[in-house]
Design brief:
single chain, 541 residues, alpha+beta, five-stranded mixed β-sheet, five-stranded antiparallel β-sheet, disordered N terminus
Length: 541
């Protein structure tokens, strides 16, 4: 009999291990809920899931990031966070089962994860205080205590019950190791789960409300009429063809690619921009109102993400309103290298710690590089950089389009590598000449007869001169070009095709104003943008 009791102590029943795993999951839930509540008092970015997610993004190889963006698009951050939660859930289940046998070891494991979360939080580029470690630490302590107490209910002996004759029942007479406090366990588990749900909901609500001052400041912004307004978009710049991308991309549809798991919400009344560094003779600090009261320019500019695959959707055209960046730099005494300037790289820093390097020569060569305050007639949306972001025509976003900007430092390419350069991307990256077929879609099944083939082409700061379409292995046919707005915007094109039944491959290529024909050589997005011809396969019925 003693051998059986010893075996039960050494090897808990599978049902007990399963309940231990459930305890681990509940403890993990409690830890994250408490951490969320504490993060509301510190800052949303200090949440362990956000902090670990940010650290994971930084440590992920460029090729893997590119794969995630290509397959998940703007949902890549959601997928990452769900993945982190899934991994934590599995580890919590394992720790819970382990705690049934090694009660203290399991609880210590929860604390270890708290240490990892705290380390990730205080190592983030935008962390300014050790208080960022508090959500992970406090959450881990709460989870460890909960796990220790709840598993204790699995090992506590059930209370003995006496029959009418005063004798002890058979269940109560069983060894203490074989019994456990079922009622106490269920009550403790249910209570903790309910409390965790309430705490987590309150924490998320408080985190969401932290940006109310920023939202209020944006709602109060009234963009003045620009001193240099954009020319009206030519009436024939937008073709009336079903399936083609609209000439102006609505704000809600504009692509978003960045590393921010939590969109920064910056109060415009407290925002400041500092310009300093090599060759800056008069360092300056500007407020949002300072920029708002300067002469504003308004320009139509197409932006392109370097992660855009051939035929991809990470390109969009908008009307931007802002301040000429070259004017601000000149006021600070900055000169481009061609005029004897000491700095050849402008490093812009975001409030979330992102660094982006742009060539000073390009920013000051006369193009409409700006600090944008507005997008399509309204203040910048938070997702696109409110209160201020950089826009530089002709350069991929990773070397120009710093969102939520708060600092500009003049330096050299030799002395500093910004975020993406450290991860294998190019230091300089002018946008390549590219084109895309918007309609018909891949694997479409149009009817035989005249089928309109249409799409967009772009070569910012050079302009599009010609677009050609090839059907199967036939000759290149010149497409009709819509009217050009500016050389900094994309251009729509179309070709009526007399489609015959069967399978066909449609291919497009563009030629820019410099005479460069879009290359057919396929390259990856890393290090300086994808290249190649876009093709779609259709079946004509």
């Amino acid at each position: 009999m003693r051998d059986e009791e010893k075996d039960q102590r050494v090897r808990p029943p599978w049902s007990r291990l399963a309940l231990g795993a459930l305890s681990g999951a509940l403890a993990g839930f409690a830890a994250l809920a408490v951490a969320e509540l504490v993060a509301a008092a510190v800052r949303p970015q200090s949440s362990p899931v956000v902090a670990v997610g940010g650290a994971s993004i930084d440590a992920t190889p460029a090729a893997v990031k590119d794969w995630a963006i290509r397959h998940f698009g703007t949902n890549d951050k959601l997928v990452l966070q769900l993945g982190i939660l899934a991994v934590l859930a599995v580890l919590a289940l394992v720790l819970g089962a382990l705690t049934v046998r090694f009660r203290r070891v399991g609880a210590a494991g929860v604390l270890l994860f708290g240490v990892i979360g705290a380390a990730a939080a205080i190592s983030r580029p935008d962390s300014t205080s050790f208080t960022d470690a508090l959500p992970s630490v406090v959450g881990a302590v709460a989870g460890a205590v909960f796990l220790y107490v709840l598993v204790g209910r699995l090992t506590a002996p059930a209370r003995s019950t006496a029959g009418e004759s005063g004798s002890v029942s058979e269940e109560a007479a069983a060894p203490a190791s074989a019994g456990w406090d079922r009622r106490g366990f269920v009550l403790a588990a249910a209570s903790a789960a309910a409390a965790s749900a309430v705490v987590g909901t309150v924490g998320r609500s408080l985190n969401a409300s932290r940006g109310k001052d920023a939202v209020a400041s944006r709602n109060k912004v009234v963009l003045p009429n620009p001193g240099s307004p954009a020319h009206p978009v030519p009436k024939r710049a937008g073709l009336r063809i079903d399936g083609i991308s609209p000439f102006v991309t609505p704000n809600d549809d504009f692509y978003r690619v960045d590393t921010a798991l939590v969109v920064p919400k910056v109060d415009a009344t407290a925002w400041r921009l500092r310009i300093h560094g090599k060759g800056v003779r008069r360092p300056a600090i500007y407020s949002f109102d300072d920029l708002l009261h300067r002469e504003l320019i308004e320009r139509d500019i197409t932006l392109t993400c370097v992660s855009n695959e051939v035929g991809g959707s990470y390109v969009g055209n908008a009307r931007w309103t802002g301040v000429r960046l070259a004017d601000l730099l000149a006021e600070c005494g900055v000169k481009p290298p061609s005029r004897g300037g000491r700095a050849d790289q402008l490093v812009s820093r975001s409030v979330d710690g992102m660094t982006i390097g742009s060539p000073v020569e390009d920013v000051m060569d006369g193009r409409d590089a700006m600090l944008a305050l507005g997008m399509n007639g309204e203040p910048l949306p938070f997702e696109h950089g409110f209160p201020v972001r950089m826009v530089v025509p002709g350069l991929y976003g990773f070397v120009s389009a710093c969102k939520w900007i708060e600092d500009i430092e003049l330096t050299t390419f030799d002395s500093y590598d910004p975020y993406w350069v450290k991860r294998g991307w190019a230091r300089k990256a002018p946008i390549k000449t590219e084109s895309r077929i918007d309609t018909p879609k891949p694997f479409a099944r149009p009817k035989a007869g005249t089928v309109m083939v249409a799409g967009v082409a772009w070569a910012q700061h050079r302009g599009i001169d010609k677009v050609e379409v090839r059907i199967d292995d036939g000759p290149w046919q010149e497409a009709h070009l819509a009217a050009e707005d500016t050389r900094d915007t994309w251009r729509q094109w179309s070709l009526p095709w007399r489609a015959t039944k069967g399978g066909h491959t449609l291919t497009v290529r563009a030629t820019d104003r410099a005479g460069t024909v879009q290359t057919d050589r396929r390259t990856r997005t890393i290090p300086d943008g994808a290249s190649g011809w876009h093709s779609v396969v259709v079946t004509v019925e």
